[in-house]
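hey
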């Protein structure tokens, strides 16, 4: 497993927590940051998946 996939998954989880916290307290900025972190994590995880696929060939 590529380190990008691990870091990406962690960022995605952090983003989900931030987004939920922002919704819970009514903080739109925190919610937006959470969504941004979540998307960034998904992208990094996908890049790691591509790297793994290339190494596998």
């Amino acid at each position: 497993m590529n380190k990008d996939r691990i870091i990406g998954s962690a960022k995605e989880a952090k983003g989900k927590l931030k987004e939920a916290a922002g919704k819970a307290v009514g903080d739109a900025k925190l919610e937006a940051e959470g969504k941004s972190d979540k998307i960034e994590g998904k992208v990094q995880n996908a890049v790691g998946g591509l790297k793994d696929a290339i190494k596998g060939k």
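The mean pLDDT is 94. Helices lie at 3-25, 28-56.
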